[in-house]
Write a structure and sequence with these properties.
The longest helix has 11 residues. The termini are far apart. The chain has a 3-stranded parallel β-sheet with strand order 1-2-3. The protein is about 20% helix and about 15% strand. The radius of gyration is 15 Å and the shape is globular. It has about 100 residues and is an alpha/beta fold.
Length: about 100
């Protein structure tokens, strides 16, 4: 008997439009967010920043452990033009990632 697949998690598949998912999570590093980057070959983006509107969730990774409320608010302000108003945004520090993986 073949087990029923309930979840397939793909890394780096956001830009592949032929893959149809039920939920899209966009991760972006705090120090080098996608909204400050450019399309290849000038930058690291494989699609325009406007593609972020498809995200159901945004996770800002590698945040400093002492991230201030002003830094968080500034990052959210810069993200807003690229995501839907209803898209939740979470901020994670390296410390939290290490804690979750232990």
């Amino acid at each position: 008997m073949t087990p029923k697949t309930e979840l397939v998690l793909l890394d780096d598949a956001f830009q592949h439009r032929k893959l149809i998912g039920d939920f899209y999570c966009l991760l972006t590093p705090f120090e080098a967010p996608f909204y400050k980057d450019f399309l290849l070959p000038m930058g690291r983006l494989r699609e325009s920043r406007g593609g972020a509107k498809r995200a159901d969730l945004v996770v800002v990774t590698k945040c400093p452990t002492n991230l201030s409320e002003n830094q968080r608010a500034g990052s959210l302000l810069e993200l807003k033009p690229y995501i839907q108003k209803s898209t939740p945004v979470f901020f994670f520090t390296d410390w939290l990632w290490r804690s979750l993986s232990d």
